[in-house]
Amino acid sequence: MTDEIDDELWDDDEDTQKDKYLTFHLAAEDYGLDIACITEIIGIQKITVVPNMPPFIKGVINLRGKVVPIMDIRCRFEIEEREYDDRTCIIIADIKGTAVGLIVDQVNEVIDIPEERIEPPPESGGKSYSRYISGMGKVENKVKILLDINTLLFDEDIDQLDENNSKR
Amino acid sequence: MADQNNNEQLEIIHEFINETRDIINDLEPTIIGMEEMTGQDLTDDDKETLNGVFRLFHSVKGGAGFLNFGQLVQCTHTAENLLDQLRNGELALSAEHVDLLCQSCDFTKEALDYIEEYGDDSGITEAANNLMARFKTAASDPAEPTPTTSPRSDELIIDLETPVQQLISAEDRQKFVYENSTIIKRIETNLINDNKKTAPKAMAKAVLTDITLFHENCHFLAFSELDKLTGIIMLVLEKSNNHKNILQRALNFIRELIEVFQESLDNILQYGIGHVYGLKMYIELFNNLLPPDAQIEVHTPPARLGEILIKEGIVKNEDIEQALSSQGRPIGEILVDKGLASREQVNKAVNFQKKLRPLTGKSAGCSKVPKRQEIRVDLEKLDNLINLIGEIVIAENMVIHSPDLHNLELDNFNKAAGHLSKIVRELQEMAMIIRMLPISGLFRRMMRLVRDLSRKSGKKVELQLEGEDTEVDKTVIEKITDPLVHLIRNSIDHGIGTPEERAAAGKPESGILRLEARHEEGEVQITISDDGRGMDRKRLIAKAMDKGLIEGDGSQLSDDEALQLIFKPGFSTAEQITDISGRGVGMDVVRKNLEDIKGRVEVASKLGVGTTITLHIPLTLAIIDGMLIRVGGCRYIIPILSIRESFKPDPSAITITPDGQELVRVRNNLLPVLRLHKIHNIEPDSRRFEDGILIILESREDNICLFVDELLGQQQTVIKSLSQYIGRQGEVSGVSGCTILSDGEVCLILDVQALVE
Predict the structure, then answer these.
(1) Residue A46 sits in a domain of what CATH number?
(2) Residue A98 and residue B725: Cβ atoms within 8 Å?
(3) What is the rounded CA–CA span in Å between residue A113 and residue B233?
(4) What residues does B705 pair with on adjacent strands?
(5) Fewer CB within 10 Å: C terminus or N terminus of chain B?
(6) In angstroms, rounded to a whole number, what is the distance separating the alpha carbons of residues B672 and B687?
(7) Per-residue pLDDT tens over the stretch B194-235
(8) What is the band of A28 on the pLDDT scale with cuts at 50, 70, 90?
(9) Distance in Å, alpha carbon of A54 to nearest chain B alpha carbon
(10) Mean pLDDT of all residues in chain B?
(11) Interface test with A, best of B720, B728, B738 (most A CBs within 10 A)
């Protein structure tokens, strides 16, 4: 029964959230994330370091009692790190019940990018970050790099996480 | 609308499944208790027990009938038949009967599982038929099962004069009244709000559901007048399903009866007697609505003691009247006193009266375990609540220690803050005990296990339980079930000998297995002790050598070390592998399970006297006592249980081996030193031993020293798991989880076991 309701809500959301992207600034570029998976944006706060993590996992924070791991997008793209300042934000994304925070330089706004204005990601060989890109959104005469949150966070198949969840 | 009905139905089925599981859990120990009655005449107490079992089966049947689970109805009905025959002395209770009843419990459990999965019980027909066949051979005169909701309701006559209801506690009565008031209110709302819009048929269906519930409740607590009235209403609603006019009339009557019901419930609450004024009239009213062939004969029950006596011609009506006018004592006694009837005659009548009400209220038989009033809550909601309370604690800390308040004189604020802190602390304590359950459920499950095992192995075992009301975290209970089963199996299979063997050793034939739970030193201790053979040091060592688990001849081992051998993987002492135990996966699994929940196992055994195994279990898995430590800018929690001592080292006590391993001499031991800042790559305050502090950590038999900058103090630590996402990114070694400190920062909890290894 609750499932049904959830589904309904979800449908509603989908309609109003379709084609909406949260844009943020990182190094020299503007990026966009589908807002459907974003729950909130918080300012930077003290991060507890967890040992033995890949460099882009900065640690965990306490989000109202929930322990949320934090990923630095700069590190993920191997862009040179910089000091966090008061514009640095953590975008909290929720993928199938797993909350993850993403550190970005600056959050801009939520914009509409209709499907016809999105071009497929550029093809490039070798080790490239284009697999994290779901498309290039053209807004006026600028380009926003739209990120695929699933591959960004998990890289591998998300089904695996699903399995883990159902086991618990 | 159809969907909603479907959901409601599912909800009802779900509730039924849960309730029935509880009932079965109550039933099993009682049934096993019945074994003691075999082979002898039943005392009144025994009969009460039988009644208790009968009643529980009956309520399962009622629910199953209502939900149309035919197989379940048949099974419980046959069980009822058997019990009825036993109760009436038509059959002598034998061990087979107890077996059968146990099997019907098993069957019911299976059926419930099946129903839970598929929504009906049609797929278990074969199992049901098997069981029925066995019942039929056991019962001398198996009656054909009648799949009605409660076939006994019409035959039952229960008198009101000697209040059966005295057996019902005031608490139960209150619960009953409360529950049923809700039902009545629901009927009322249904009838009044929707009268015009809903078709009488649909309305009747809704009302019938509620009335049936009400009826079952009344029936169960033997409020006969309400029972009868609701019974006939049910009948009318069922029979006149296709007559719109009759239904409408019946519904109108019911609406007028709401007040009567309410009044009767009030009476029950106040006096414990559910008298319905004008019962006869109402019953006739409804009876007239029935088609002529379905009408029931309305009669006043001749069940009053006085009336029985008159009928038997023992006393005259006037005598009874007279006696009644001076009543204050049981009528029987008065009549005996007055010489109007002999004691024997009255007793006979009283017995007859008892026979007339085989379904009395709560009885001693099934109330050995005190009933808890409880409501079922989704565990997730509970966890959310507990999380929120944790948040309140942190938020409160942040408010009260807010830097903005520094150096301000705030008398009123401080007073209010103190008050808040106190409430928050209480709230936190409540949150902790909310997840606690008494261990009795687990213990009672063991009764069944012990019985089955002792029958299978031909040994006599008496199970003694103590401390059943000890409360333990729900998760802990789940985790110790398997170890407990293992230990009990071991005790019965290896520990307690056969009756002959025991007799030869000068012990009573039946062995004693004691299961004891208690709170001690902030933990729960569960002791499993038997008075069996005890463990033989020589055999243990021989076995261990045989399996290649130890080197040498084992003579260097202390007795205690020899006992510890049983925890080695691959160790099994049974000469032959039975299907009970002895596959060599016993004790090491027990130990591992306990370590998983931060507990430990202790074993003590004396050859020829018995074995005692003690499980030490933390009160809850959610909280540990932790020591907050600091290295550079990082803080960590170390479980207090693993800390043996801490000290400022003297540089002269440190030795460095050629391969760079630092050792510290503590009294006569050399312990390896682990630098936490090295492991976790932190810049410490100082790398010199004399500036920091060494903590001796203990895990199993190994100790190490951990070098840190500072001890910050002891505190209660709520354990949270690191996000699953973290687990995917890499193996977090040496960290078992995390917690949130009072300033809101996340702090890692060190995994001492991993550090030592």
Answers:
(1) 2.40.50.180
(2) yes
(3) 65
(4) B673, B696
(5) N
(6) 16
(7) 555 566 677 777 777 787 887 777 777 767 777 777 877 777
(8) confident
(9) 7
(10) 75
(11) B728
Architecture of domain B437-618: 2-Layer Sandwich (3.30)
Contacts of A60 in chain B (CB under 8 A): 722-723, 726, 738, 746
- The Cα of A117 is separated from the nearest Cα of chain B by a number of Å equal to 33
CATH architecture of B164-294: Up-down Bundle (1.20)
Q: What ipTM was assigned to the predicted interfaces of this complex?
A: 0.76
Question: In which band, very low, low, confident or very high, does the pLDDT at B629 lie, cut at 50, 70 and 90?
Answer: very high
**Least reliable range by pLDDT among B54-58, B339-343, B485-489, B680-684:** B339-343
* Alpha-carbon distances, residue B587 vs A54, B43, B577, B591, B736 (angstroms): 39, 43, 15, 6, 24
Shortest CA gap B653–chain A (Å)? 30
Tell whether the model's pLDDT for residue B412 goes beyond 70: yes
CATH of domain B379-435: 1.10.287
Among A residues 1-60, those touching chain B with beta carbons less than 8 Å apart:
1, 46, 48-54, 57, 59-60
Alpha helices (H) in B516-586, listed in sequence order: 537-546, 559-564
Instruction: Give domain B2-138's CATH architecture.
Output: Up-down Bundle (1.20)
pLDDT band at B261 (very low <50, low <70, confident <90, very high): confident
CB within 8 Å of B710: residues ≥ 6 apart:
B629, B630, B685, B692, B693
User: Domain range spanning residue A112?
Assistant: 2-167
Element (H, E) at B516: strand B511-520
Substitution target from B4, B681, B725 for chain A, most A beta carbons within 10 A: B725
pLDDT per residue over A117-149, tens digit each?
A: 888 887 765 556 677 888 888 888 888 999 888
